[in-house]
Specification:
about 325 residues; mainly beta; about 50% strand; globular; four-stranded antiparallel sheet
Length: about 325
């Protein structure tokens, strides 16, 4: 277990610090943060964490290995299920099983039997693209984004798709490099998304119509250029603050609804990839991570593992199951 005070900022912008020095602390949130490695793993590309309140389980993926994981914090067990292709994001279904956004498209998946049913392959014409980050909106629609991932130079070829309960698929928003950071405000009227690309590093906010599932009025919400980490997988807390994994920067970042960083938690791994609140009171922050391509494997033996952070002083929101 690692214990540390959170790094906090209350001004207009965050200032990076030397990781060898103790981070600054504001008295307003002077509490002890504890970070535990709960699933030791060398996941090549851990991602996609989502907590299901009915299961009381954390579901997450290793994209590269094509594995869906299911972690039980009570017993400490972590089961894994082979998908047969890269899987970017998942959500529990109201009728049982999972919905998945994979390398090739949208699928329904039964972990118990291994049965996989294709819903749609909206980018079958784009060789080298795959699905990445995803989440459900408060009304049970499943959102997921794509990205180019074939080793070619970066290209704005990632798009966001909405999968409705009737299994219809629609495309929204402008193309980006690396789709990430999908999350919704507590009232469901704001949708967030990010582009993790090094030349972009931006989180946007949109007005969201909960009746139609349509995002409009896109505007820049936060740019991470002054931070060590780039915005990866994200979630929202009960105060409407946006938490994201600062991939490449050894950090977790919380941004207020006004777009100001007020908390940074230093991680023991270089590439945290997705944050999600879970646990009985939704006050444990789970963090997936990446082992692939880290700068110094000896300095981070737990890269690729699943972590649990306690002591944040806040809690998350229940994740809606996919209604289809």
């Amino acid at each position: 277990m690692i214990s540390q005070p959170p790094c906090l900022y209350t001004g207009e912008a965050a200032v990076p610090w030397d990781r060898k020095q103790a981070p600054p602390v504001s008295g307003r949130f002077a509490m002890t943060i504890s970070i535990d490695c709960v699933v030791p793993s060398r996941s090549r590309l851990g991602e996609g964490a989502t907590w299901d309140v009915d299961d009381a389980r954390l579901w997450w993926v290793d994209i590269r290995a094509g594995l869906v994981h299911c972690y039980d914090p009570v017993t400490g067990t972590d089961d894994s299920f082979e998908v047969g292709e890269q899987v970017g994001s998942i959500a529990r279904r109201a009728s049982g099983g999972l919905v998945m956004a994979t390398e090739s498209g949208f699928y329904l998946f039964d972990p118990a039997s291994g049965e996989k049913h294709c819903i749609a392959t909206p980018e079958s014409h784009l060789e080298g693209n795959r699905f990445n980050d995803g989440t459900t909106d408060p009304h049970g629609r499943f959102w997921a984004g794509t990205m180019r991932d074939d080793g070619a130079p970066p290209e704005r070829r990632g798009r966001f798709y909405r999968l409705d309960p009737d299994h219809s698929v629609s495309r929204h928003l402008d193309a980006v490099h690396t789709t990430n950071g999908l999350a919704f405000s507590p009232d469901g009227f704001v949708m967030y998304f990010a582009d993790t690309n090094r030349d972009v590093q931006t989180v946007w906010a949109c007005d969201y119509d909960p009746d139609t599932g349509t995002p409009t009025a896109q505007r820049a919400f936060f740019h991470s250029g002054e931070l060590a980490g780039r915005p990866d997988g994200a979630t929202i807390d009960v105060d409407g603050c946006y938490w994201f994994a600062g991939v490449g920067g050894w950090q977790i970042v919380r941004v207020t609804p006004a777009g100001v960083v007020d908390r940074i938690i230093e991680m023991p791994v270089e590439k945290p990839s997705k944050v999600m609140f879970g646990g009985a009171s939704l006050n444990t922050l789970y963090v997936t991570s990446i082992a692939e391509g880290v700068s110094d494997t000896a300095a981070q033996p737990d890269a690729g593992s699943l972590f649990a952070i306690t002591g944040t002083g806040t809690q998350g929101l229940p994740q809606t199951r996919f209604a289809g």
